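Every protein is a chain of amino acids, and every chain bends into a shape of its own. The protein below has been through that process, and both of its lines are reproduced in full.
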Amino acid sequence: MRAGRLSDLAVALLTRFDRTEEREDLDNAIRLTGAAVEAAAADAPDRAMYLSNHAAALKNRFDWTGRLTDLDDVIAAQRASVRTTPADHPGLHRHLTNLAVACQTRFIHAGDLADCDAAISAQRAAISAAPPGHPSLPTMLANLAGMLDQRFDRTGAAADLDDAITAGHEAVAAGGAGDPGQSARLANLGNALWNRFDRTGRQADLDAAIERYRAAVSASPPDDRDRATCLSLLGRGLHARFRRTGAVTDLDAAIIADQAAVSAVPLDHPDRHHYHHNLGITLMTRFNRTSERRDLDDAVAAVAAAADATPAGHRDRPRYLSNLAIMIMNRVGEDGSADDVAATVRLEREALDLTPADHPDRPAYLAVLGGGLTVTGAIASDRRQAIEALRKAIEVLREATRATPADDPHLASRLASLGDAFAARLRHTGTKRDRNAAIAAYAKAASQELAQPSERIRAARAAADLVPDAAPGHAADFLETAVRLLGDLAPRALPRGDQQHQIREFAGLASDAAAFTLADERGTASARAARALSLLEAGRAVLLTQLLGTRDDLTDLRRRHPVTARRFVELRELLDAPDGTGGVADPAAIPALGQAAEERRRLAAEFAGVLREIRATEGFASFGLPPGTGELTAQAAAGPVVIVNVGTRRSDALLLKPDGVTPVALPGLARDELARHIRAFHAVLDAAVAPDAGLADQRAAHDAMDEVLGWLWDTAAEPVLDALGFREPPAGEAAWPRVWWAPGGLLGLLPIHAAGHHADREAGRTVMDRVISSYTPTIRALAYARQHARGLPGRPRSLIVGMPVTPGLPGGPLPGVPREISAIRSLLPDPVILLEPTGPGTDAAGTPPTRAGVFGHLPECAIAHFACHAASHPSDPSQSLLYLHDHEAAPLTVRSLDPVQHDRLRLVFLSACRTAYTADTDLLDEAIHLTSAFLLAGARHVIGTLWEVHDATAPEMAASFYRGLRTAAGALDTDQAARALHDAVREVRDRYPRTPLLWAGYLHVGT
């Protein structure tokens, strides 16, 4: 009787403590529950309840103070309550669950695996003891799932993880919508799925985890104490997916979720540091993407604060210390010091000291320590100290790789770090042993199929860099592996901006692969040339080629399989649609974070499925696939294709002719010399087009261009034309030969079609006095342009767009535009004219050019002519644009043209500045500019420019070009576009040979 009264009073005090947090109430409750246990007889039927109440009071004090001795007493009391409860007692499952939770809490704080084992055993027993359908079953199943998941974290046992996912699914199914504990159950299930993704690299598990985290956030009210946890977990999942796929929308969403989690947790919450830590990790990733120093500083501060706030015995402290070490190492890459390097090593050693020898996170900590030691050796001024630090680094990294399972997706990065350590020591020792060890580590990293493509490419490139000059074939093999992975690096599931970011890091990779291949002494010269050509086709214009692969002629498919063709086009248009604003997602829409990226991946997966379905259909096996060697060779039937490769070690031209591929060495075309000429020319060009430019600036630019054209002739054009047999101008009325140039890379910034010594043109020492030139980004792009029917369609129309002034643009007017339109309107068939009004006297019936207006007319037009300002975006070539009336609200950009495909379009003339120019040198190989965009849109012929169009000569050039398309019957033959441009340019050149900026920048792209 007395025990009951004491217990009731204690429960009342605990209830008041929960509301007021008066410490005196808690202390009195503990005293009274203890007295109740002592007052109860050993065989009293309520003794188990009194013990459980005493344990609950002690648990409250532990939550308040974090004192582990209280937790020890809790577990002792709960075990006693279980022992005193009969096996058939209806409350046994409650006592077992309380014991399980107490044991798991001590495991979390003390890290003793025996506590986790005891918790799982007790929770399994509780589930077995509970009556079927008991309302506590969802909570018990969720507890079991969490415990199994945490034991997996400690042991790495995959069976525990699978069991955790099974129990998690059962818990969610048993709870149902509206259950107040459902958010926690969903979060636990998400954790188990996330852990399996982290262990296996399976994307489906990560997507499923994010889906559960989002559902957990939706199920948690704003004032729910678990909401911060759910938000933080959602941020972690989205962050992991960004790291895997590169979709920056996931990164933006992760930061929003992490910031919301920090805001949702009280300032005095004991686990607040955990949420700051997660936010710091995400900010660090954003720094790596954007290089915003503030993100780096905020990340280091957040994780350092989390580590400082975490007790030495807490299981999360090693992870916080390791992540802080990684961040400080990132700071070393910016402006850090030897002290930062030493701090990295010290922090990682501390993390390892706190980590059991069999802990699954230990290999990761070893890898970070090894990286820190490698940097220590790299910056050491004393050779002996450097070699000793690198010896330790190699020892640690070997241990890290040995401890990493063979099917772990993280193995590649650890092997690459081992390769880095050997490579660093090689710089001090120069030994064959270190070289071979580094190459072997990199090669093994490159072969890891579960690793991210970027990691494999970096490792393969690093291996190639270490191959001795005497064995170029081995380097070629490594680089071929890397080149073949470029397509996987930027899948269609990524928006265009993310694709460009992914591919930018590996600029020049295909060029180096081709150069090593040509230097290889294995096989025949023709076989080496064919292999080099294949590598350049695979590694250049990767994003354009990806789009071309979905633009095959659909006539037969529509006729034989109309439903499949229709779905193919629908999905293609959805994936090709321009990205959104790219801004940060709305924080109010947190439950929907990451859904846009998921939807795009879903569309991409369905699109890939439709492609497989088409290729499985009789007669369509090669639909959308790259052309074979025979198909490539066929593109040289109308004239040779010259693929120029400027590598870091050698330069060559590959001459594609109907009988195969022939290499021509270009020793004078050195990469460094090419870059010097480009820098010098563009410096004077920028000065010449500046608003305050004078005649001296313009003359200097013309002279610089003249020098560049002569150098190009001597080092590249003349050797190529001589090898092709075009050693002199065509005689008499002989047909002019055609040559297609695929310069790629830096050479694409210069007009090789205009190379030559034009002041001495009587000697025929110029390209344009020997051949008619055209350009193509790749041979496949040329094949695509040739798919379209020849000639103009019946009753052709044309579109003329003119912007003599541009609203909202600081640049001056273009007074030559009205003259240009006047000169060409009578030369084009049935023209639609969109002309920007210029003030009083303007034709009132004129329609200002807008993007919607242009896109509305293009489907009915065979020819489109643009006379306007244009700009090449300095860092995102997909945002390069033509300036129309609504350029601020709806710009006509390269990206906006991606979904456009018109079968009637034959010819586009871009009489605007730099429409065939890419300012971002890391994306030169991708040929992302307005000229290639219109080629992709369906035009067989595009006239573009490499620099500013001269307003005085542009009308003459355009009119001369269109007159050159006239046939004897008075019709227009657009397939004479290359010849017509060639003649128009030569005509201006002949009058102004020493002012090449007037004429050398015009070029023809297409068939």
In short: The longest helix spans residues 695-724.
